[in-house]
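Now for my pick.
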Amino acid sequence: MACKKQLSQNGGTRYGKQGYQSGDIVLFSWKANGVIDHVGFVESVSADGLTLNTIEGNTQSADTGDQSNGDGVYRKARNNNKTVVGAYRIPNLNEEIKTMEQEKVTLEKPDSWAQVACDWAVAQGIFKGGDNGDFQWHKTLTKQDLAVVLYNLKG
């Protein structure tokens, strides 16, 4: 239950026994009683949707024995109708990364005539960049900025 609850809270979308996609997190119940015994990642799905090709950790290489406590990571072909409880799809990380790339701040570089002095000031700890590493070299220096520079210069 905790696994399902946490996946839902973290933005996962729950799917029943259809509509799986590569990258989905799939939950298994070996006794088909709704208790989650094991988890894996969907690598691919058969055309008829009945077989999930998964990558699973802590499982056996064979299809017999304790599938929830094995000796390695294996590719498995699992019957969707027997043991699968459901799957969760985490929001599309590729889209989130693209958005982050588009929004990424372009880090300013000092003009060439000031590059040596700026590099020295950074190396001495006089100037410190923001959380994103940007020194905002072309921004006007305010009185509070000057106070921080003087404080850093004092050491």
In short: The beta strands are 13-15, 25-28, 38-45, 51-59, 72-79, 84-89. Residues 143-154 form the longest helix (12 residues). Residues 105-154 form one domain. Residues 1-10 have pLDDT under 50 and may be disordered.
